[in-house]
Design a protein that fits this description.
By secondary structure, the chain is α+β, with helices and mostly antiparallel strands. It folds into 2 domains: about 70 residues, no CATH class; about 110 residues, Roll (Thiol Ester Dehydrase, Chain A). Helix content is about 35%, strand content about 25%. Strands 1-2-4-5-6-3 form a 6-stranded antiparallel beta sheet, with helices on one face. The radius of gyration is 21 Å and the shape is flat. The two termini are about 25 Å apart. About 25% of the residues are buried. Bound molecules: octanoyl-coenzyme A (CO8). The site of octanoyl-coenzyme A (CO8) has 14 residues, from helix 4 and strand 3. It is found in: Cell projection, Ruffle membrane; Cytoplasm; Membrane. Belongs to the THEM4/THEM5 thioesterase family. This is Acyl-coenzyme A thioesterase THEM4. It catalyses: octanoyl-CoA + H2O = octanoate + CoA + H(+); (5Z,8Z,11Z,14Z)-eicosatetraenoyl-CoA + H2O = (5Z,8Z,11Z,14Z)-eicosatetraenoate + CoA + H(+); dodecanoyl-CoA + H2O = dodecanoate + CoA + H(+); (9Z)-octadecenoyl-CoA + H2O = (9Z)-octadecenoate + CoA + H(+).
Length: about 220
């Protein structure tokens, strides 16, 4: 029998503890690595923005492409098993979250502030990288941001969970290139279930997207 499959629950828990510590250690970066990676992620975001907006000729694009491939090889010389975990500011904000993670180049990043008593708010500006319909934000991007905001609000309520349902109502197109605001508030809690409402507003204060999510604290 493999160690992980042992029938002795005490021994199994010990094995999981050692395993968890090993994963935690492997995925925890030194402070100087976090700072350097945050800087790199910002530059890669700028690169991504340049890629979708560039109009340079094809031979120049090919030359840049070769340089980027060489840079990817350099970074891949020492590779972790999974993205880093941890929080750089003590708020529990995930370092590599695709929504708010400062180390994740695909994150805008959205700065989400948990509010005491079960809420969260965010202010952010999205670029053309996130375009869906011409000149407006892709609906899936709005959904991703709202899912995270709603989840942070549930956690701020002391009732974190996994998203079980996410209902979206797209009231009007969400513009990009302007400052957007978003807020979430816990509506109710029943046992392991938490319902949270949220919305995104354009600079004129009008709501563009509304969302309601139900989070379930997993049984295990
Ligand atoms: C701070 C960090 C913020 C992070 C925000 C980002 C959040 C995410 O993106 S999470 C990723 C997306 N979500 C997922 O992958 C979830 C996948 N699903 C699961 O893991 C499980 O199905 C989970 C955890 C939702 C429920 O599992 P489990 O604990 O076994 O629930 P289970 O015992 O079957 O059901 C509990 C109750 O919830 C209800 N329920 C469970 N799932 C659903 C669902 N999808 N829809 C409606 N009701 C549901 C059940 O009917 C049951 O209700 P009742 O108690 O009234 O009979």
């Amino acid at each position: 029998m493999s160690e992980a499959g042992t029938a002795d629950p005490t021994r199994r828990n010990r094995i999981h503890e050692v395993w968890d510590r090993r994963i935690l250690a492997e995925r925890t970066l030194a402070d100087d690595q976090v700072a350097a990676l945050a800087d790199l992620a910002g530059r890669v975001r700028a690169l991504t923005d340049a890629v979708v907006h560039t109009r340079v000729p094809a031979d120049e694009i090919a030359a840049v492409s070769a340089e980027v491939a060489a840079l990817t090889d350099r970074l891949s010389a020492v590779r972790g098993e999974a993205p880093p975990i941890g929080s750089h500011d003590g708020t529990g904000r995930a370092l590599a979250s695709p929504v708010s993670g400062p180390l994740n180049p695909i994150a805008p990043p959205v700065d989400i502030e948990p509010l005491p008593g079960g809420g969260a708010r965010a202010a952010f500006t999205l670029g053309g990288v996130y375009e869906g319909p011409p000149t407006f934000v892709h609906g899936g991007v709005s959904a991703m941001i709202l899912d995270q905001l709603l989840g942070v609000a549930a956690a701020a309520n002391g009732t974190p969970g996994m998203t079980a349902t996410l209902d979206l109502r797209y009231r009007r197109p969400t513009p990009y290139g302007v400052r957007l605001t978003a807020e979430a508030r816990v509506a109710r809690v029943e046992g392991r279930k938490t319902w949270v409402d949220a919305s995104i507003a354009a600079p004129d204060g009008r709501t563009t997207v509304e969302a309601t999510a139900m989070f379930v604290m997993p049984a295990r």
